[in-house]
Amino acid sequence: MNEMSNSIDDVERVALAAREALTDQMIERLAVTGGNALEVIDRLNDETTSAAVHRLIDRLTEMQKVGALDTACDMIMLLHAMRNALTDAMVERLLSYAEYMVTSVANEDVCDLATNACEAMNQAAEESAKAPARGGLMATISLLSKPETQRSLQFLTNFAEKLQNRSCADR
Questions:
Q1: Vertex 114, ends 111 and 120: CA angle to 5°?
Q2: Are residues 160 and 87 both part of a single domain?
Q3: Measured between alpha carbons, how far is 49 from 56 in angstroms, rounded to an integer?
Q4: Are 105 and 165 contained in the same domain?
Q5: How far apart are CA 73 and CA 79, in angstroms?
Q6: Is the dihedral of CA 157, 158, 161, 162 positive or negative?
Q7: Which domain holds residue 150?
Q8: CB–CB of 45/51 below 8 Å?
């Protein structure tokens, strides 16, 4: 019984020392921290929130196992560094370049070109798959003697020449 009395006295002395050591500001901070902790615990009682937190923990564990957690953190650091490094002038130039690209590409002619190219590619693939494969020099010469082959080769030659001339003119 005497040992128990000593233990109670020790606890009372510790409580008294803690009470005397804490200032009003410290008690206020402890109360706010306790209130915030209870609010978080209360939110975890919500099934949706609890499921989200558990899912997040599971995904973090998976990412850690495969080494993706470091990669994700590195990407976040990179994005943060990029954001800090960008000046208003750089953002303005990037946006004007993006606007130029969108206006250059996002027009009806480019859409028609892309649609026509896809349809032509699909049709050519179908026709090529149906045609029997012939080999040899004579088959190639026979193919070159056809007017549509000559027109196609002439078109490709003209296209390549015009593209090269435009590329050189842009430099």
A1: 135
A2: no
A3: 10
A4: no
A5: 10
A6: negative
A7: 135-171
A8: no
Range among 22-36, 103-117, 146-160 with highest mean pLDDT value = 146-160
145 DSSP assignment: T
Tokens of 48: 């949706």
Same domain flag for 154 and 83: no
Whole-angstrom distance, CA of residue 58 vs CA of residue 51: 10
- The token pair at 163 is 């593209």
Q: In the chain, helix, strand, coil percent, each to 5?
A: 90, 0, 10
- Token pair for residue 114? 């892309």
The C-alpha atoms of residue 15 and residue 168 are separated, in whole angstroms, by 86
Quote the number of domains for the chain. Answer: 2
* DSSP-assigned states of every residue in 3-53: HHHHHHHHHHHHHHHHHHH--HHHHHHHHHHHHHHHHHHHHHTSHHHHHHH
The predicted-structure confidence for 8-63, as pLDDT tens digits, reads as follows 888 888 888 777 777 778 878 888 888 888 888 888 888 998 999 999 999 999 99
